[in-house]
Amino acid sequence: MALDRYQFTKKTKQDKFFTARLPKIPKTPDDRYIFSREGDRLDQLAFEFYEEPRYWWIIATANNLGKGTLNVEPGIQIRIPFPIEGLL
């Protein structure tokens, strides 16, 4: 199981930066839906549902969140993808 989302990213000597290609996260019947609360963060949600805060990017990618911050606005519906084994 990969913990690093950049594990399969290739970098050449000409590249200045890594290019991350995040996996597609399809909707499944096992997905969970929650409404965010005041003070929620993507890493805290990942720890709560996956027991691993480094999986915050799965929730962010599934919901188009996390551009520049791990904070989540309160009151929005968030999809928590399950199972995640195929994504790692």
Question: How would you sum up this structure, described in words?
Answer:
By secondary structure, the chain is α+β, with helices and mostly antiparallel strands. It has 2 helices and 2 strands; from the N terminus they run βααβ. The longest helix has 9 residues, at 42-50. It is globular and about 45 Å long. The N and C termini lie close together (6 Å).
Descriptive key words:
88 residues, alpha+beta, two-stranded antiparallel sheet, 2 helices, 9% strand
What is the secondary structure topology, with strand pairs?
Layout: E1 32-35, H1 42-50, H2 56-63, E2 77-80
Antiparallel strand pairs: 1-2
Summarize the structure.
The chain is an alpha+beta fold and 88 residues long. The protein has helices at residues 42-50, 56-63; strands at 32-35, 77-80.
Overall average residue pLDDT: 83
Instruction: Please give the alpha-carbon distance between the first and last residues.
Output: 6 Å
Q: How large a portion of the residues is in β-strands, by DSSP E? A: 5-15%
Strands in their spatial order, largest beta sheet: 1-2
Q: What general form does the structure show?
A: globular
Helical content, roughly? 10-25%
- Poorly predicted runs of 5 or more residues: none
